[in-house]
Amino acid sequence: MLTISNPATFDWAGMSLADCAEGNARDTYFTLKLYDLLLEKLEGQPVMTLVENVIMPSLELFSDMEYNGLQVDTSQLDAVGRQLEGQNMNLEDELYECKGVKTSQSFTSNNDLCDILYLDEEGMGLYPPDRTGKGSPSVSAPTLKLLLEHIEEELQTR
To answer: Is the pTM of this model over 0.85?
Structure first.
């Protein structure tokens, strides 16, 4: 296996062919060992039905896509991007109409979002379900998803 301390500064072009071949061979060897181990552990498990009937038949398609790439209609992609941007702006405008949200605050700023959700007295006053490593209330995507689930549960019980 190739062990590189800093891939950004490693001289890939200057690497000898022998070192490259040895690294690739080791990667292949250990990948096969891992495959054999996982196959042994999963044999007879219900998940093997999914693997055999869905995943394995699709591997050729995925490998072709990885090798050949995908054709993307950039004009369609731009149109979808503009549509999503417009929807996002409309939703953001609706959020600024909520009590306790100041127009000077930005939903893309973690500090402002933390203030809006948890800290501001006139804000939403929610209890943070998770905290960062430094102890601050978290506004990470998994935490916001959990917070949304709690809110939806509360609304259903009312």
So the answer is: no
C-beta of residue 20 within 8 angstroms of C-beta of residue 26? no
CB-based contacts of 27, cutoff 8 Å, min separation 6: 1, 2
Nearest to 149 by CA among 129, 120, 135: 129
**Which residue stretches of the chain have pLDDT < 70?**
1-3
Render pLDDT for 36-70 as a digit per residue (tens, 0 to 9).
999 899 888 888 899 889 999 999 999 999 999 98
pLDDT score at 8: 81
What CA–CA distance (Å, rounded) separates 82 from 133? 36
**One-letter-per-residue 3-state SS of 35-66:** HHHHHHHHCCCCHHHHHHHHHHHHHHHHHHHH
Q: Are 129 and 123 in contact (CB under 8 A)?
A: no
Q: What angle do CA 148, 151, 155 make, to 5 degrees?
A: 140
Please name the residue ranges forming H helices in 43-140: 47-50, 56-68, 74-96, 110-114
CA 59, 64, 68 angle in degrees (round to 5)?
Answer: 155
